[in-house]
């Protein structure tokens, strides 16, 4: 069952990509003939379930991003991101609410995952028909160790319970906004993704897992870029 609500996407491209070592935001790195930003944008923009895409860009690079988005008419806007990933999400939610999208379903995707495919997007949209929050993940094939600050192993969680998080992550916009409203009142608030904000600050809201794909990798450094190039060439 697909959601009866409209679905919009937020493409987070607010990082400066310092770890990539490319001398520029990695979103503008060439990946098999198109920038990483354009590949991620196209995946969302061209999906029939997505009504529009809001791009959240690193400060100082909005104009450059608008050159890329000019060929994608269902781009809603390009806005500046914040200092942290969570700040960029909050900026996006506020913009969407001001533009009348406060009742929509929202998919939040990292621009650094340019190989996301239509199946994952479709599954997220469908899951939002029955769930208020959705995360994409793949099962961990590695054993994960938990250590203390000294580096001593203190726990080895069962691998069958462990997943590696990906994006997009999907939410009913009002649910994600409510989670951030509570989070921003917490002086100790810190988050690396949006599902964790819902999980921590709206504990009564279940976060459903949608199966991801190993190809939906995050491009962080030059090695990741080379792997993504190879995958696109196969």
UniProtKB/TrEMBL annotation:
Hey, which pathway is this one from? Isoprenoid biosynthesis; isopentenyl diphosphate biosynthesis via DXP pathway; isopentenyl diphosphate from 1-deoxy-D-xylulose 5-phosphate: step 2/6
Give the protein's function: Catalyzes the formation of 4-diphosphocytidyl-2-C-methyl-D-erythritol from CTP and 2-C-methyl-D-erythritol 4-phosphate (MEP).
Q: Give the reactions, separated by semicolons, that this protein catalyses.
A: 2-C-methyl-D-erythritol 4-phosphate + CTP + H(+) = 4-CDP-2-C-methyl-D-erythritol + diphosphate
The record's CDD domains line, in alphabetical order, gives: CDP-ME_synthetase
Return the broad EC class: transferase
Q: In chain numbering, where does the site feature Positions MEP for the nucleophilic attack fall?
A: 159, 218
Site described as Transition state stabilizer, located at 19, 26
Native organism is: Nocardioides phosphati
Keywords of this protein's UniProt record, alphabetized? Isoprene biosynthesis, Nucleotidyltransferase, Transferase
**Mind telling me what this protein is named?**
2-C-methyl-D-erythritol 4-phosphate cytidylyltransferase
Which HAMAP family is this protein grouped with?
IspD
EC number(s) given by UniProt: 2.7.7.60
Q: Which gene encodes it?
A: ispD
Annotated signal sequence is none
- What protein family does this chain belong to? Belongs to the IspD/TarI cytidylyltransferase family. IspD subfamily.
């Amino acid at each position: 069952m697909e959601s009866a609500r409209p679905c919009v996407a937020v493409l987070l491209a607010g990082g400066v990509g310092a770890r990539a070592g490319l001398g520029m935001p990695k979103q503008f790195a060439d990946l098999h003939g198109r920038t990483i930003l354009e590949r991620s944008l196209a995946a969302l923009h061209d999906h029939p379930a997505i009504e529009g895409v809001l791009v959240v860009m690193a400060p100082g690079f909005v104009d450059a991003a608008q050159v890329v988005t000019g060929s994608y008419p269902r781009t809603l806007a390009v806005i500046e991101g914040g200092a942290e990933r969570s700040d960029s999400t909050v900026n996006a939610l506020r913009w969407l609410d001001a533009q009348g999208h406060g009742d929509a379903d929202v998919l939040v995707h990292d621009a650094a995952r340019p190989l996301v495919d239509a199946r994952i997007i479709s599954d997220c949209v469908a899951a939002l028909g029955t769930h208020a929050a959705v995360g994409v993940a793949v099962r961990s094939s590695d054993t994960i160790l938990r250590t203390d600050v000294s580096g001593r192993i203190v726990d080895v969680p069962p691998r069958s319970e462990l997943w590696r998080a990906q994006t997009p992550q999907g939410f009913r916009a009002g649910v994600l906004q409510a989670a951030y409203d509570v989070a921003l009142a917490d002086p100790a608030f810190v988050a690396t993704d949006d599902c964790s904000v819902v999980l921590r600050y709206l504990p009564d809201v279940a976060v459903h897992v949608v199966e991801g794909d190993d190809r939906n990798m995050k491009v962080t450094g030059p090695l990741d870029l080379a792997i993504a190039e190879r995958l696109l060439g196969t």
